[in-house]
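Two proteins, back to back. First:
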Amino acid sequence: MAINRNTGVRRYSLVLWNLLFTTLLFLPFTSHAQIPDSNTVTVWGQVPAEIDSVQFTIMQDYTAGPSQKLSATLSDNDQGKFSFTVAASANLAEIVLSFYRKGVYQHSISNYLEAEQQMQIAVTNHEGVYQTTYRGAHASSFGLKEKLKSQWTGFVRSLTDLGFDWQNPEKGMAVRFEIFDAGFQHLIQILEGNKSLISPALYNLFRSEYLYLYYGSWQLHARELYQKAKSPQQKDVIKRAYQELMLKAPVTYEFAQISLAESYAQLLVSSVQTQLLFESGGVEYRFSQLYNRIKARYSGVEQEHALYTFLSDFKSFLNVTEFDPKEFDLCLRDALSITKTPGLQKALRDKLVFESGATVYNFSLPDTLSRVVTLSDFRGRVVLLDVWGSGCSGCVLFANTLKNKVAPAIQEKGSLSIVSINIDSSRDRWIKSLNSGKYSQHTYTNLNTGGMDNPFLRYYRVDAIPFVLVVGKDGKLFSKVEVSTSEKEIVAIIQRAMHMQ
């Protein structure tokens, strides 16, 4: 099923820039995993008076998600001061602090802590803009993450008006590559200059993160240019130039078995995506084709991490056509059969809830009139569940696609129910966002979870929104829908669910 070229390029560019600016909202969730008391990390600080609660999340393995979530309610007597001390099984952990006022999210920070470290912060509010200052013995090492992030953000902004020489595409590709390569090398200079502040493990983690951000984004640009090419000759030049230029990219270092190094595995997947798109002549491919190519390309721990990341990352669905949920099921079962690493095995088993035909959690949630609605109420109809939250720009983009592209294309509209599930803890904020028309429509069934600590969200380990499921008439899962899936493919999934006996 070929996609209209103009539509494909437009959507592909949109997904590219959404990736660069992180429009998805990533969320902490409650986990009951037991953490060995081997190391401890401590985070403490002070926030402005209007902040009345602080949420602390720690992640020690990207395949397992957050391992602990704690919260502190602040009273006037606390004077904005908070403190968290937790046991950690890893020598390196990622922490996220989220700050709330009357249940409404205000600000968050994330950073890495090494064993036995303490993080001291001060959050201030300057005319509505929250700022974070690190203090204490490790302030410089914590500030390094912010410095690298600032460097990357400035680099992305510089790409806004990036042109391309279509008269000489080989030169155009070289110029593009030099921009990304020089950006990465400059960032590495900053990292090298601060190497003494951090451990080798954290150094490798930072390097792997930005390898993906720079060279993975370069690969996305190359794929976009390849699809925009107007002649076979231009395609051949772009393909050849990409292959030659990637030999210069410093992405061949040995895979570091760091539990938080998800970005390097993403680069492994992106490399195969790019090669397969070139080999197909820009024509979209089947999900299983890409899975089998990744499986054949890598071995050992690289293969395990690449396959897990492929089955977990929404960007895996870029350029995928005629997606069949059964393909995902077969690939998932195959990955489980060859994966040896215990943590990855468990993470893959957790995904079995997304197999086609799996029982969907029968939620009971209030609507705008406080009437309780359950999934079983929709038995006999195909249901699209759209989970969203206020402030999530990715949710706005999906809602727009659903309203303007997907819903109008469904021929049997009477057989489809769209259920919009909001995760805000504040009912007032939910209703305000709903009335804005940006996130949902009043013609949908609109429900609210009352926050992230909800059985439905825990069952699916929802840690990013929008989160979308298509449920069949029998109440069983038909397919999970990724935000990178084209509107044409979403419509096809819904139509197949409607015609399924």
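And the second protein:
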Amino acid sequence: MDGTIAMSTNSDWFMFIQEMTRLTSDYERCEDKRIKEQIVSDITLLKEAIALLSYPKR
């Protein structure tokens, strides 16, 4: 193995992109500041998960 953790299928990518789209939509519609902050936290966590699955391990 080359040290890369990869998503196993295109459906994995689709799932992450679908969730990112949903979170972004929720953020844009939300009017509660505290909930928006949580959504930002969720988006950040999802981005970190995608990065871990997309780039070679160091």
